[in-house]
Amino acid sequence: xxxxxxxxxxxxxxxxxxxxNDPAHKRPTHKSGNQKETCSKETRSVAIHxxxxxxxxxAAGVAFGIEEKVAIAQALDQAGVDELEVGIPAxxxxxxxxxxQMTRLSxxxxxxxxxxxxxxxxxxxxxxxxxxVHISIPVSDVQINAKFHGHWRAMxxxxxxxxxxxxxxxxxxxxxxxxxxxxDASFLLDAAQYAQEWGTSRFRxxxxxxxxxxxxxxxxxxxxxxxxxxxxxxxTHNDLGMATxxxxxxxxxxxxxxxxxxxxxxxxxxxxxxEEVVMALKRIYSISxxxxxxxxxxxxxxxxxxxxxxxPPWKAVVGKNAFAxxxxxxxxxxxxxxxxxxxxxxxxxxxxxxxxxxxHSGQHLLRSVLERYDISxxxxxxxxxLAAVRSWAxxxxxxxxxxxxxxLVQIQQAx
Length: 415
Ligand SMILES: [Zn+2]
Hints:
Blueprint: H1 3-10, H2 30-33, H3 35-39, E1 47-50, H4 52-56, H5 66-79, E2 83-87, H6 93-103, E3 110-116, H7 119-127, E4 132-138, H8 141-148, H9 152-168, E5 172-178, H10 185-197, E6 202-207, H11 214-227, E7 232-236, H12 243-252, E8 257-260, H13 274-285, H14 296-307, E9 324-325, H15 328-336, E10 354-355, H16 363-371, H17 379-396, H18 402-414
Parallel strand pairs: 1-2, 1-8, 2-3, 3-4, 4-5, 5-6, 6-7, 7-8, 9-10
Helix pairs in contact: 5-6, 5-14, 10-11, 11-12, 12-13, 15-16, 17-18
Zinc ion binds at residues 55, 208, 235, 237.
């Protein structure tokens, strides 16, 4: 596949002339002048297109059963996500049955099936009762070489035929550029503009291997948003730990919807986490979503359990330690005013802050824990119990439970 090379050297190919370089197909430049409008985010809203059931499940070792997929779909719908990517209908009978069951639930969320640019894939989506399809095409050299032996014209023809088939069946169509972040920018825009011309309603920008940073994401997505009439959706991966940051950067650049997964579940290092994206949009930019943030912790627990993928304690928003305070100075601050060491009220996401005793705790925290049990110690006892707490916590390498602390108090008082 030599599209970008040929394209640069020889001009637009005959079969698929460039759209991005053709003034007749170019967006009026005033749209880039509208950056202010697309970037004054404080009042706009962003649609959450949840893909725990598709890209999340593609994580190594994760396999949801039919009932589990349905339970996750119901929980996500209950939480208010706008759209659910429910799976890959062409994958097989069990996947198709799970999707069929989801389409019968009359959920508020719009359901979308994931498809290759293959007519039989779209037919499988139709057979499941779906009225919305996402069609994925490779757009980088490496992907087109691997999947179409470099024949990018054949790939575009196949996309056109598949979109036509979907439109003939009255389906809503979104097209995704797999590996958009490593694609030639002109080719990516051409592919997106062809998709738009053939009746696609949305284009998905995919940082498939998670190699972008927020600044580059902003530039690449701005270019698409500026030159497309249809809305752009973000799809980011966490290989360098920037899935959420890149998703947000794309939204700042004008993308209007974003793919997320619960707990960031997904291939390799995972996807942008719904709890992070929703809370970052809300807290940093005052951009609203329809997600009820109070349900984020329950969602996290549900998916962690069903995917058998425990959440690391330090995981943003939903991790066990996200609002836990052990260190003396921090706990003292939290006791005086929670704003001192918490980015936002944990109750907003269904959590509560926890003050735990461990190696780094001080007397204020110990006193406050013991107050709950109507226990007060004199200064000498306090120091002795604190020393015992630190020693035990170091041995067991964790914070202590209240019962363990009370046990140490008993020992001290009996001494
Ligand atoms: Zn992905």
